[in-house]
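We keep the chain:
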Amino acid sequence: MDSAKIRAPDADIITVVKFSEEKKKLNITSEHVPDALIVVKEGNVGRLIGKSGERINGIESDTKMKVRVVELKLDFKDIIRAVHLLPWVVKHVDNVDFQGNELVVRLKKESGGFIGQKGVNIRLVEYVIKQMFNVGVRVIQPSEENQS
């Protein structure tokens, strides 16, 4: 996304993940779910957003996409919150960590909203995570852990 580099040359951008086509495939039409995620180094969000949002608004105008910005930290809940159809559902997440070639999301309690109808919500999250880290996502609900 060249627009981000042009409008915010001082922001340390790690990667940009565009997923508007995946949203269409999954039939996600909510205006609250962005079309792209810009990942920056910690402490660089303000540089990318700009004073009163002027930079991010310009990027969205240039690209005709709704964009969300996230700092890359080891707390993957921020990434899930940024792209999930229901950002509040992150309150049900107990832990998120790499386990082999998967990002494992352990839930505190059962949450159909986290998975979504026909798995749509988690499939979008998995698509973005796969684009960023080339790993899949596995969700473990409390009932599954008790069976182990």
In short: The chain has two domains: 1-73, 89-148. Residues 1-73 form a domain with the GMP Synthetase; Chain A, domain 3 fold (CATH 3.30.300.20).
